Amino acid sequence: MSETTEKKYIGAVGRRKTAIARVRLQPATKSSLTINDKSVEEYFKTDMLRHTATEAITKLKLDQKFAITVVVSGGGISGQAVAVRHSIARALNEYDADLRKKLKKAGFLERDQRSKERRKFGLKKARKAPQWSKR
Questions:
Q1: What is the CATH number of the domain that holds 22?
Q2: pTM, whole model, 2 decimals?
Q3: N or C: which end of the chain has fewer CB within 10 A?
Q4: 51 is in which domain, residue-wise?
Q5: Gap between the Cα atoms of 57 and 63, Å rounded
Q6: Residue whose C-alpha is closest to residue 68's, from 103, 27, 105
Q7: What percent of the chain has pLDDT over 90?
């Protein structure tokens, strides 16, 4: 890429369980956040999920600086909210390396590795065994 050609956006990927969020961060005068072509209020119905998804930009007080577009798929609604937060944090880190310390301290750059354990043969769930009987 030449020096005259500038990137139009900053992209990043965030994950949680089986949810994957791809974000595009564009510096803009009018801020907006769209998730799968819907507004945040439309996509995440509860305040807790909205707060989780937007936590990375609100904590750094950068919510009025960017037009953010997110494509999220897989997992449940809660995992998707954390995946969106993770992807926004990664994009902000790419935008300005000085924000890394604050994002890292808040725990937004670390991917949550916990996921559902697989079911084993002979058991009812991952670890739950059928009731044992002596006779």
A1: 3.30.230.10
A2: 0.86
A3: C
A4: 10-106
A5: 5
A6: 27
A7: 85
